[in-house]
Amino acid sequence: MAISSSFPIFGLLFLTTLMSSLVISHQQPLLDSAEQDSLFQVLYSINSAIPWRTLFPDDLCLSAPHGIVCEYFTEEQPPLTPNGSVSTQPPLETAHISELSFGFVSDYTSNPPCSPNSTINPLVFTSFKFLRKLFFYKCFTEMPVSVPDVSSSSFGANLEELVFIENPALVGSLSGIIGNFTNLRRLVLTGNGIYGNIPDGVGSLVNMEEVTVSRNQLSGGVPFSLAKLKKLRVLDLSQNYLDGYVPLSVGNLSRLLKLDLSHNRLSGKIPESLVSLQSLEFLDLSFNSFGNYGVPLFLGEMPRLKEVYLSGNLLGGHIPEIWEKLGGISGIGFSDMGLVGNIPASMGVHLRNLCYLGLDNNKLEGTVPEELGFLKCGYEINLENNNLSGKIPVTFTSKVAEKLKLKGNSGLCVDGGDFSGFGKFEGSLGKLKLCNKSDISSPVLVQEVSLDSSSSSQTQISSRMMLGFGFLFFLSC
């Protein structure tokens, strides 16, 4: 009994000793001292007020600020020693920095905080040969910082993600920051001071899955070379100063899920080649200068579309009957487009998942289709500033409430019996009079509330941002 009772203790001691020896013999390699020193210098350039070396005195691959990530690599030794004999050395294990993320992220996960005097230390682009991700968020907001020119350097051989978000003081050309990034998957430069043309060299980044360069100062045309990015899933060039035509070759991006060219100066005709984007879910071409060609009929042949925004382009014409195959659409923005004629009842019949419909500031006439009141989603329908007339369908009362916007339609009225709670809708309906039961077809408006186009534009932008926000970093995994 004594032997059997003591055996587990001896066995436990043996296993503990064995595990300790294995841990000692397989300790993770330390970060190279030169790479560690470079990282400290980069941290001090981001925020010199923080005593980085005091807070993190040990190896930065074992203990580092959030946002600093290491990876461990196995490097095969040369097969022959210097004297020509066969090497018996085991593979060499090394540690290297693979991710650098700077700037506030959230209350729960904050990267090394930047300061108003943050700068970019050139060591970022020379000392981390294994870097896969470089991320700056709200780091360069006051003191001007030049975009680094790494086009002729060896930086970025392993880089997969290059992200600069909300850095208005970061200025320079886009061509300088695109280096030898043969493995780059994500290029996200949003809300910076980057100017100049989009270089043709972007077409050489054949592994690219996302190109987002929105809210900068970019000018010139949309380059034809973008068509070479066959793996591209997100193309967002919005809120710049791009002009000219949209190349027909954009239709060759067959994997594209999101195309956002809004708020530029693009003109001509919306190319019919976009019908080839059969995977496309989000299309925003709003607030450009596309000509008087009407709503593109090819939209009806893109059944995966979930959101489409064309507002602010004077396309003119009628709203076409193209909705039968588009039952998955949740957002439509057709504001301020010079549209005429009636609102098709088929929109309410087929678009049962619609959450936002913007038809305001057009020249639409006729009645409001009752079918729009049977949509499933808790939605917003904006029909302001048109020439609509007749009685507002009772089907709107139970769902739409304040989200039904009808101001600026002099011929509309409401039935008092149908709208028993009319008072709470007064603001959104524009203080419409009750319909005259003896003359329902000739309603009267006692007070008109004007709405300028800028207010309409803001409504359009906020609505599409809510619907399309999930796309912003869907490739971050």
From TrEMBL:
It is found in: Cell membrane; Membrane. Keywords: ATP-binding, Cell membrane, Leucine-rich repeat, Membrane, Nucleotide-binding, Receptor, Repeat, Signal. The keyword Lyase does not apply. GO terms for cellular component: plasma membrane. Pfam families: LRR_1 (PF00560), LRR_8 (PF13855). InterPro entries: Leu-rich_rpt (IPR001611), Leu-rich_rpt_typical-subtyp (IPR003591), LRR_dom_sf (IPR032675), Plant_RL_S/T_kinase (IPR051716). Residues 1-21 form the signal peptide. It comes from the Eukaryota. Coiled coil: none annotated. It is a single-pass type I membrane protein. GO terms for molecular function: ATP binding; signaling receptor activity. PANTHER family: LEUCINE RICH REPEAT FAMILY PROTEIN, EXPRESSED, LEUCINE-RICH REPEAT DOMAIN, L DOMAIN-CONTAINING PROTEIN-RELATED. This is Leucine-rich repeat-containing N-terminal plant-type domain-containing protein.
